[in-house]
Give the backbone structure.
Amino acid sequence: MLEYFLSFLILTGAVFTFIGSLGLVRLKDFYTRLHGPTKATTLGVGCLLIASAAYFSAYGENISLHEVLITFFLFITAPVSAHLLAKAALHLSLPSLAEIPENETEDQETSEAKNAVTETEETEKKEKKEKPEETGESQKTGSNDTPVSTKLAGTKPETVAPHTTEQTKSS
């Protein structure tokens, strides 16, 4: 009876290991390839280790706990390492077959930033049209009546956002 159980565990382990290895080779991108070794191969190697522990415990002099400990650590470390690999891949922005979800806060921040840039560009265009060609007294001044161009170390007054000069005047 033990031989049938061990045969079942060995065949099951071999099938899971083969499916996991096949998935590693055949799947298209990094994220889907990550499932092969972490899911199926972990179960396959776990079955093989349990079969080995049962065999050596039954036919050996002592109970074999080495394989049980290896199986335990395998089941603990495989999902953790897969999670870390997936997070690293997301951080590196590796391409995926599926769309990578974005947070709603990131969407809101990017849309607000785009709106702020568009408003700034529009006001700069208006200022360029309204600004007289002469320099000197017509330059914008900051809070201490110092020209903005000298405060910002050589930047042109038309490149300064209008809300920046208004905030400095009000404070």
User: Anything to note?
Assistant: The chain has a mean pLDDT of 76. Residues 104-130 form the longest helix (27 residues). The chain is about 70% helix and 0% strand. The two ends are 88 Å apart (CA to CA).
